């Protein structure tokens, strides 16, 4: 299961009530993305609307014909999580920042597992690149791995 499947909308009930529509808690579910992409966000109070629009701007801004189902929102969000970790934030702090930035939350254990998987994948990339004689790619993978540790 991808980490984006474990990212949830904080104050979900409040937002659903303000929008007068039901939608899943999962931030990256199809119905939630539809709502953000085409919904009547002017019904939200100013503070909620600002964060929802920030999320839409930062992750749904793509020119693909299949937007928001093209996979770019999820990849952008994963990059966001990795950037937060590269700034030496621990999983609890990452959850706090994404809650402050976008009214999203996740369980710190899920963030920890995601980061651990990312490190393991980078170790595999590094090793395969070395075996294949691609030292530059191996060094890049090692550098990215160290950013996450």
From TrEMBL:
Superkingdom per UniProt: Archaea
GO MF term set: helicase activity
Keywords in alphabetical order: ATP-binding, Helicase, Hydrolase, Nucleotide-binding
Hydrolase listed as a keyword: yes
Any one Pfam family match given in the protein's UniProt record, by short name: DUF5814
InterPro entries xref list: DUF5814
Protein name, per record: Helicase
Organism annotation: Halodesulfurarchaeum formicicum
């Amino acid at each position: 299961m991808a980490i984006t499947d474990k990212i949830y909308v904080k104050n979900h009930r409040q937002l659903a009530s303000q929008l007068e529509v039901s939608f899943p808690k999962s931030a990256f579910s199809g119905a939630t993305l539809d709502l953000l992409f085409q919904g009547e966000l002017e019904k939200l109070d100013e503070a909620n609307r600002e964060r929802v629009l920030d999320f839409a701007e930062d992750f749904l801004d793509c020119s693909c014909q299949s937007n928001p189902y093209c996979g770019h929102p999820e990849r952008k969000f994963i990059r966001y999580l990795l950037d937060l970790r590269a700034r030496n934030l621990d999983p609890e702090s990452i959850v706090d920042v994404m809650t402050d930035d976008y009214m999203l939350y996740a369980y710190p254990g899920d963030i920890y597992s995601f980061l651990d998987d990312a490190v393991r994948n980078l170790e595999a990339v590094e090793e395969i690149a070395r075996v294949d004689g691609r030292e530059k790619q191996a060094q890049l993978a090692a550098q990215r791995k160290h950013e996450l540790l």
